[in-house]
């Protein structure tokens, strides 16, 4: 796996997490397109900020082998970023529209 592929899969996981949360919790939904945008930016934000702890895409493929534990952590953080990004954007949306 290349670092770019790991990054794209990570963003895809964030999109899926945001859309699944929006599907099951309708009060956090912005529709498919809105949830997708929030999932992309939420997962990128979390991976960029927390990835410095050692589970970014380039640390996963260190020494021409991939670390499966770091990949699992990366994907979980990306899913968490997509879901939490959706919750935070919905809270901002309701606060600004009061």
The computed structural class is mainly alpha
Number of helices: 4
Instruction: Give the uncertain stretches in residue-range form.
Output: none
Order of helices and strands: HHHH
Q: Into which percentage range does the β-strand content fall?
A: under 5%
**Outline:** elongated
> What's the total count of β strands?
0
What do you see in this structure?
By secondary structure, the chain is mainly α. It contains 4 helices and no strands. α1 crosses α2 and α1 packs across α4. The longest helix has 29 residues. It is elongated and about 50 Å long. The mean pLDDT is 90.
Layout of secondary structure:
Blueprint: H1 3-24, H2 31-50, H3 57-60, H4 68-96
Helix pairs in contact: 1-2, 1-4, 2-4
Task: Fill in the keyword field for this structure.
98 residues; mainly alpha; 4 helices; 0% strand
